[in-house]
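Recall the central idea of this unit: under ordinary conditions, the amino acid sequence of a chain determines the structure it adopts. In this exercise we apply that idea directly, starting from the sequence alone.
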Amino acid sequence: MVTVARIETGDSKITIDEVKSYIHLIGNERDDELQVMLDAAIAAVEDYCNISLRPTTWKLSQDLATDNQKLFYPPVIEVVSINDYDGSQLQYKVLQDIVYIDTASSFICTYKTGEAEDANRYKAAVLAYTGLLFDGNDDNNSFNIVMSRYLPYRML
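Accordingly, the structure predicted from this sequence is:
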C-alpha cells in the first residue's frame, strides 16, 4: 500500500485578498479562517489533479517490496531521502517523477515538489472551492461540480 502525506507546505501564490475579492468579503476579521479554507481548497485541488500548486515536502511510504515508484504531485524538484523501514538508506536514481531503487524493498521516501508551470490554470478552481467552503457547501458533490471542468488536466 502506498501512503503519501504532506509534511510541510510553502506559501501559495493565491492570496487571502484574492479570496476576499472573489467572495466579496470586506474586512480582516475572518482572515485566519479564510486561510484554513484556502489551504484546504489548494490541497483538495492538488489531490484531485495530482499536481503541486505550491512548494511542498512529502513523505511517501511504500509497504510492498518494489524497485520503482511514481512520485505523486509533480513537479518533483528534490528527493531528500529514501530509507527502508529499518532506517537504512537505499540506493536510488530518479528519472522524471519515477524513483528507481537498486534493491526491491519496502521504503519511505521524503521528497520536495515545486509549483507546477501551469498552476495558474487551477486558480479558478481553488477560488471557487474556497468560496464553497466559506458558504458552508463542503459536500463532495459541490467539489465534483467545481472540478468537472478540470478532468482533462487530471494526472493519474
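The CA atoms of residues 69 and 99 lie 5 Å apart.
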